[in-house]
Amino acid sequence: MPSETRTIVFDNADIKDAIAVHHPDSGIDDPDELGRLAISNDEGISIQVMSKDGGTVAVSLDEDELVAALIAHCRSYNIPIPQKAVKSMVIYAGSVGLQLEIP
After folding, report:
1. Which of 21, 58, 80, 81 is the most exposed place for a label (fewest CB within 10 A)?
2. Domain locations along the chain
3. Cβ(86)–Cβ(100) under 8 Å?
């Protein structure tokens, strides 16, 4: 049976916006408060966002939290995300992708 794979790629500004607006535990209201992103793929994908001064970690998310924030970000832009799709993260050079495996 055929299946579909779709990837939605986000740049750093989109990721910061998704975390600030759609991650309730971040405590951050304005994406401009966020600085550099550090993406890790050691034991599953995780992301740390540094504060604007670069010295402290403003927020740290695991893969599930990041997927939830990015899905909410897509919905705010009316980008359809199939409910039955298997969702995962993919790391690209300089960006992150939300991969959807649609049965």
Report:
1. 80
2. 10-84
3. yes
